[in-house]
Amino acid sequence: MKHRIAMWATAGFFIASCWTVLSLAIHMTQAEPIVWNLAFWTCPIVLVGFYLHVGLRFYWVILANGVTYALIGTIVETLRQAQNRYRAATQSFK
Q1: In this predicted model, what pLDDT tens digit does every residue of 58-92 receive, in sequence order?
Q2: What burial letters (b/e) apply to 42-67, b meaning 16+ CB within 10 Å?
Q3: In the chain, is it the N or the C terminus that has fewer CB atoms within a 10 Å radius of its CB?
Q4: Among the residues of the chain, which ranges form H helices?
Q5: pLDDT at 29
Q6: Average pLDDT estimate for 30-51
Q7: pTM of the model
Q8: CB count in 10 Å sphere of residue 39
Q9: How confident is the model at residue 49 (pLDDT cuts 50, 70, 90)?
Q10: Quick one: pLDDT at residue 13?
Q11: Using CA atoms, how far apart are residues 34 and 2, in angstroms rounded to an integer?
Q12: How far is CA 85 from CA 9, 44, 79, in A?
């Protein structure tokens, strides 16, 4: 389970890194609305910074997105383990 959570955190880190490179390549105010929507859905910390009017440095966004994805991964993997245990328990009674 630790490896899967690490993969979630790595995915979050990689996604935020890609958005950072893209935002440095183009000015995000000139970006299409679909780009903004993708950034908001894949980088939850951007929502916090946008709605609370807090300026966040790129390295904090990358770090916070990795932590956010690790927390989401912990929840998903815990639920997945519970579901597998439940399936195993119900099949043993059949």
Answers
A1: 788 888 899 999 999 999 999 999 988 888 888 76
A2: bbbbbeeeeeeeeebeeeebbbbbbe
A3: C
A4: 2-25, 33-42, 44-51, 58-92
A5: 67
A6: 79
A7: 0.77
A8: 19
A9: confident
A10: 92
A11: 34
A12: 25, 31, 10
Residues in the chain, total: 94
Q: Is the pLDDT of residue 46 over 80?
A: no
Enter the DSSP assignment of 85: H
Residues 46 and 15: their CA atoms lie apart, in Å, by 12
SS3 call for 17: helix
Contact, 61 vs 16, CB < 8 A? yes
By the 10 Å C-beta count (0-12 exposed, 13-18 middle, 19+ buried), 7 is classed as middle
Q: How far apart are CA 28 and CA 10, in angstroms?
A: 24
Domain regions of the chain by residue span: 2-86
- Surface-to-core class of residue 69, CB atoms within 10 Å of its CB (0-12 exposed, 13-18 middle, 19+ buried): buried
Report pLDDT for 93.
67
